[in-house]
Design brief:
With 260 residues, the protein is of the alpha+beta class. 28% of the residues lie in helices and 20% in strands.
Length: 260
């Protein structure tokens, strides 16, 4: 898994971790009576200066709760005040309604338009009537992906589009290319993921969509494997058990997409 700039794991309430924004001796103060746009630009500048040159702030947005501003850095969301004096790491939760606003916002930002996925660059697997559809980003060297493929053996009436997302090892590209160039890609992928049976070496002229899939994964911010994408645009990263998968498929709110 890609190491995140700020790790939110295990933090459940905003304010659980408060980091002073002036940790580097920063003494600048925000001018008064700024417009919303100016305030957001100021916050972005201050966060980058204090977090470090490696920080990339994608957006700053004022929230409707507590006068806080949402700061988005890739898949991460943190919060700050209008003077960018403090950074709040964690989730904002409505205690009365037990609603996790941070998770809702993260899910919204990570939503994918399933109909736009280049399914021609994926390995297609159909079981039963295939009416239930998912896409998965997997690496041939991913142990959890192999476990998930075993889980899928117990799921019926499903179509799976597997994007071979080669991010874990140098030979992932070679293994994926051999599988892509096999006479039966779906069988070759399952042979490898379920039984460790390698595909025949690909012909020299055969080209796999490695670069296309890699660019796609980066564009929609897939940071690890396996990652399951559903037709409603939501995703489940990491290992998913059969109950969680069946529950998600059963509770899908969107209509089936028109597949290419």
């Amino acid at each position: 898994m890609k190491k995140n700039l700020i790790n939110l794991a295990g933090v459940v309430m905003v304010g659980a971790s408060v980091l002073a924004g002036s940790a580097h001796g920063q003494t600048s103060t925000q001018p008064k009576a700024q417009t919303s746009t100016q305030t957001e630009a100021y916050i972005k500048k201050m966060i980058v200066e204090n977090v470090g040159s490696g920080a990339k702030v994608d957006s700053v947005t004022k929230t409707p709760y507590g006068g806080l501003y949402e700061v988005r850095m890739g898949n991460e969301i943190v919060y700050t005040d209008e003077k960018a004096k403090y950074v709040f790491v964690g989730s904002i939760i409505d205690i009365k309604g037990s609603v996790n606003f941070t998770k809702q916002r993260t899910d919204e930002l990570n939503r994918v338009n399933f109909a736009d996925l280049p399914l021609d660059a994926a390995v297609k697997y159909v079981k039963g009537n295939g009416k239930r559809v998912i896409a998965i980003f997997e690496d041939p060297n991913c142990g959890y992906c192999k476990k998930f493929r075993h889980t899928l053996q117990g799921v019926d009436n499903i179509t799976v589009y597997t994007f071979m997302y080669n991010i874990l090892a140098e030979d992932s590209v070679t293994k994926s290319r051999d599988i892509w160039c096999a006479p039966d890609r779906s069988k070759a992928w399952d042979d490898w993921m379920l039984n460790n049976k390698a595909a025949p070496v690909a012909a020299a002229g055969c080209v796999a969509p490695h670069e296309k899939v890699l660019a796609l994964g980066k564009k929609i911010r897939v940071t690890g494997t396996p990652t399951v994408i559903f037709t409603d645009g939501s995703r489940l990263p990491g290992m998913v058990d059969i109950k969680a998968l069946e529950d998600k498929l059963a509770n899908m709110k969107s209509a089936p997409v028109a597949l290419k």
